[in-house]
Specification:
The protein has one domain (2-71). The protein is 48% helix and 0% strand. The chain has six helices and no strands.
Length: 97
């Protein structure tokens, strides 16, 4: 499993290098648009990279593919600033009594 993780990290670095070198668009690329949902892939495709690149990044297995149900939430802000909608801990303490 660690080998798959390392392969994935190397592939992400190669994609970043392609962006740095200008071989991939800085704004519209697989890294910025990840994760790609099934709806993204079956809908109209207006991106400068292939569906295959979006669906199966380099080194990815084509079996047991995990399909993310949503794209990013509020782009990076939602990914980095999670909001908990759970009741306060006091509510759980009261329920236990």
């Amino acid at each position: 499993e660690i080998d798959r993780f390392c392969d994935a990290m190397l592939a992400v670095r190669e994609e970043a290098r392609a962006i740095e070198d200008g071989r991939m668009d800085r704004v519209n690329n697989p890294l910025k648009n990840a994760p790609h949902t099934v709806e993204d892939l079956v809908g109209e495709w207006d991106r400068p990279y292939s569906r295959e690149q979006a669906c199966y990044p380099p080194g990815a297995f084509r079996v047991d593919k995990y399909w993310s149900p949503v794209n990013r939430v509020d782009n990076v802000y939602g990914d980095r600033n999670l909001l908990c909608t759970c009741p306060p801990l006091e509510d759980y303490a009261e329920a236990a009594e």
